[in-house]
């Protein structure tokens, strides 16, 4: 993956485009993805994505504001910086905090995520891995649908500040999964290896496919799909519930993580994702029961 422009050129353009202000920063992101799937032993067309954009932050006259665009030219950066400074000045003195008193971060460094084994370079080799994984799911005649898939995602970020800060980060993610659908009588059930979408997501290379069990867990996933289809209905009444770690993580994310988002607490998200039962006076002492 190559960034739209190299960090040195981005710094030069940002310096030329940035306005006179108390502080400015720029965060540029480039992301490429490839999604491959083999369903019922037939390879589907690859899906490839490419996204790139940037966000600028300006602090001036006590206010802070942001602007975003996908234009990496000097003119594009200048328009974003001008808009952010205009908004910052409009907010100065009207908010609950004077941002000119805040010490802004200026970190520098480079980071590349781990990748112990490189992924196969050719599309045919990557599909061969998924073909083998898909074939391992179809041993039982009650399996009526089966698939193996993998999503490969490369992300690169550059963060620049007006006082010379520069951080550069490169990450590679592999998100594999297996899925089997079983039918027994009038019951149809689906079993997946790690949640239906992106339950198993790690940084790395080919080793992530082995860690996920993509190449070994097919028979187990198929058998568990059949067991689900054959299982009796859940009894009614109160019961003790044992949550596996993946479900517990999701529950914490939904029940605790989202209510603690400040934009929900302050009401900014009410028209998009709702509000929160958490109020500002609960910070520092409220305990979840």
Describe this structure in words.
This protein is of the alpha+beta class. The chain contains seven helices and nine strands, in the order H-E-E-E-E-H-E-H-E-E-E-E-H-H-H-H. Strands 1, 2, 3, 4, 5, 6, 7, 8 and 9 form a nine-stranded mixed beta sheet that branches. Strand 6 and strand 7 form a beta hairpin. Helix 1 packs across helix 2. It is flat, with a radius of gyration of 25 Å. The model has no long low-confidence stretch (mean pLDDT about 90).
Label this structure with key terms.
nine-stranded mixed beta sheet; 31% strand; flat
Tell me the series of helices and strands, N- to C-terminal: HEEEEHEHEEEEHHHH
Mean pLDDT: 91
Report the total helices.
7
Strand composition percent: 25-35%
Percentage of residues assigned to helices: 25-40%
Give the N-to-C terminal Cα separation: 46 Å
* Uncertain residue ranges: none
Oligomer: single chain
Number of strands: 9
Helix/strand/pairing class, anyone? alpha+beta
Overall radius of gyration: 25 Å
- Major beta-sheet overview: 9 strands, mixed
Shape: flat
Topology:
Elements: H1 7-17, E1 23-39, E2 42-43, E3 47-60, E4 63-69, H2 74-91, E5 109-112, H3 123-135, E6 143-161, E7 166-184, E8 187-192, E9 202-203, H4 206-212, H5 218-230, H6 245-257, H7 262-265
Parallel strand pairs: 5-7
Antiparallel strand pairs: 1-2, 1-3, 1-6, 3-4, 6-7, 7-8, 7-9
Helix pairs in contact: 1-2
């Amino acid at each position: 993956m190559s960034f739209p422009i190299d960090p040195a050129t981005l710094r030069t353009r940002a310096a030329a485009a940035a306005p006179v202000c108390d502080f400015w920063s720029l965060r540029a992101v480039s992301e490429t993805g490839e999604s491959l799937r083999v369903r019922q032993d037939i390879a589907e067309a690859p899906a490839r994505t490419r996204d790139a954009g940037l966000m600028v932050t300006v602090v001036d006259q006590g206010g802070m504001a942001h602007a975003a665009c996908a234009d990496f030219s000097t003119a594009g950066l200048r328009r974003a910086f001008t808009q952010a400074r205009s908004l910052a000045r409009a907010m100065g003195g009207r908010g609950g905090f004077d941002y000119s008193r805040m010490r802004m971060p200026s970190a520098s460094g480079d980071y590349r995520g781990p990748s112990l084994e490189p992924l196969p370079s050719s599309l045919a080799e990557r599909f061969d891995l998924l073909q083998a994984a898909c074939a391992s799911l179809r041993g039982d005649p009650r399996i009526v649908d089966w698939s193996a898939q993998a999503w490969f995602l490369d992300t690169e970020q550059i963060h620049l500040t007006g006082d010379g800060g520069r951080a550069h980060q490169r990450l590679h993610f592999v998100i594999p999964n297996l899925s089997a659908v079983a039918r027994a009588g009038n019951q149809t059930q689906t079993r997946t290896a790690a949640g239906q979408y992106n339950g198993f997501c790690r940084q790395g290379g080919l080793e992530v496919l082995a860690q996920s069990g993509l190449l070994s867990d097919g028979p187990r996933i198929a058998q568990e799909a059949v067991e689900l289809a054959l299982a009796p209905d859940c009894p009614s009444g109160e019961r003790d519930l044992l949550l596996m770690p993946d479900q517990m993580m999701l529950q914490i994310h939904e029940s605790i993580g989202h209510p603690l988002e400040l934009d929900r607490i302050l009401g900014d998200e009410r028209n998009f994702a709702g509000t929160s039962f958490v109020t500002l006076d609960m910070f520092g002492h409220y305990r979840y029961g």
